[in-house]
Amino acid sequence: IRGVPTLSFVRPEVIPGQVGTIVCRDVLEMTLRSKALIASREPWGAASEACKAHFHKNHSVDSVLQHYRDLFQRLGCRV
After folding, report:
1. DSSP string of 45-62, one letter each residue
2. Distance CA 41, CA 7 (A)
3. What pLDDT, on the 0 to 100 scale, is given for residue 60?
């Protein structure tokens, strides 16, 4: 929600660059990518915006409520 990029050894189950998670093969790559994020606003900003966009699209109150509305409608409930 705050747009803080994440470094991980595990690849998220989405297209790279869409959630702000930067996948690293090993500790050396993680160290280099950490330094690059800290050294320049551009890579941090891009990853941060991807984090925020992913959160709002998938985890915001409006998004979650829409999923419940869709579910209830499929179940035949009035909403």
Report:
1. HHHHHHHHHHHHHHTSHH
2. 16
3. 92
